[in-house]
Amino acid sequence: MTLIEMKGLRKVFGRNIEAVKNLDLSVEEGEFLVLVGPSGCGKTTTLRMIAGFEEPTAGEIYIQGRLVNDIEPGQRNLGMVFQNLALFPHKTVAENIEFGPRMKKVDPETRLRRVREAAEMVKITHLLDKLPGQCSGGEAQRVALARTLVTDPSVFLLDEPLSSLDAKLRREMRAEIDRLHQRLGKTFVFVTHDQEEAMTLADRIVVMRDGVIEQVGSPLEIYGDPVSHFVADFFGSPSMNLIPGTLSQESGKARFRAPGLTVELPPSFSQAPAGEATLGFRPEHLAVSQNGGIFRGEVRLVEPLGKDTLLYFDRGGERPLIAVVEGTRTFREGDTLGVSVNPDLLYLFGGDGKRIRRGSKGTGIRPA
Amino acid sequence: MNRRTKRRIAAAFRFGFLGASLFAVGFPIYWMIITSFKPDNEWFTWPPIYWSENWTLDNYRVVWLGIQARITAQEAFTMQKPLQALKHSLALALISTTLSVAFGTLIAYGVSRYRILSDRRMFNLLMLRMIPPIVVAAPLTLYYSALNLLDTLTGLVIVYVITTIPYTVWMTKSFIDEIPHEMEQAAEILGASRWQTIWEVIFPLIRSGVVATFLFILILTWSEYLLALILSKVDVVTLPVQLSKYEGTTEGRVYGYQAALAVGVTLPLIVIGCFIRKHLVRGFTFGMVKR
Question: Is domain B82-245 annotated with CATH 1.10.3720.10?
Fold first, then answer.
């Protein structure tokens, strides 16, 4: 069932800053939807329009089939966790959690019970008498979650809630939010600029760019079947190797050329239009050998990560070419190696940044 | 010169400067207090008497209790009513400060959150304070006499509220600005009404700032002289005005009485000053709201 529906949503700030341009999106009940994109892409504005803090310049928002454009945030039955958490610093943790039910005139006894339940759910019962300022970053995060879930909202809106935490804590809290989502079975709309967060948490990812939706899909779809140069580049760590060059069609064979690199593309690309293009391949799809390969180069940097090792090749472009190899193999900086790639795992993007898909004869790229 | 010597010289300068400042500020206060306890024959003596051997409470009795003075021609002073002046001053200061802070805080909230006044208007508001009071005093007298507000508490309250509101707006706005908008939005989405949000979230967070502002304005209105002098005459006399009335005609300045009254006027200020210091420190470290 569709829980939130946005139709032709548009938001203009001031005279001509268009933050969101004609956005159509529906959120299904119980799903974990992640809005992701670089800063300024309109993801937070979209979330804030759902919450009711920003009034859409045009378009409609329906929550549970009800048009909410003219309904105040407090009446939309939503819960929101803010980027800065926005805990009330002068109230204890218990008072913070109790705030929502108290404003909704829930009787004191029920309130107490619900505060306790919420605190138990996120494991902060020992903090109830403390002030938010006395809590650590992760604890404060849990308090913010408890304060939201105690009101039993139909949707949880989370605006980059983990951005202020260090890496380890962020992973922990990510798991915590995931667990909460599964346990409550509620709808979550989560905003982040962190692709890893999006990949690990989402049922469905909405990639936004410059106020428009670039692609919607499951994490694996987004990763394996990006619709554009932008999406391909945004997802994955290390990110996809993208080499700008030109595509030519010579006697039925597609050939991609870039400085120091010529690749004969599989026949499935024989329909692709010639011209400016970008070739992409994921670092983990590269094979490294002493001889051969589509490209030979000197290893500039070896970055052992334990399980894997990253090899950086300098090929004159803005970004180095990166290959992921097994951590058990040893390489030294300065080695000259050949790099090859499985032609089935190549991506091609046109001069406009859109993906050039394989022709009908082609095998098509399966999600990796 | 080694570092230690340098530090010592710097310290000497620092203490020298602080000592001189303290003397400049402290000596008049000392002189006021000591004079208030001197018998009348020591008020004018030369060389001055820095520490009286014959200290007395007479000045206080005359000024505050209205007991007949010993020297002749002092009847006039006992007739004046310092207790009533105290009452008027207190009432004026408390009422106008309360109103000024209440309105000012609400305006500041509106400016901070809804920009009900543009930056330019806010600046103009502050400029209101830059006008020398004497410029408005004369026209105000005309208007006030037409409106029957001359020599009334109401009249003074109105003018005090108007002249202090720029301060309250500017001061409290700086405290409200410190509160992240998300704090209010969090309250809002949890179901709080606008007033509940102000009362439950905003006010507790700016309380120490509001207290500091209140005391600051209280000092201003308590010690205001010019407008009180011009806009009131007989029925309403404030302490600062009363203070000036102890300059007699025949016997010259009656320093002892004046000092005794001045002690009463300044003492509350000093006490408030001590309070405000603590609150101002809290007020200025207010940015500690966890973000």
Answer: yes
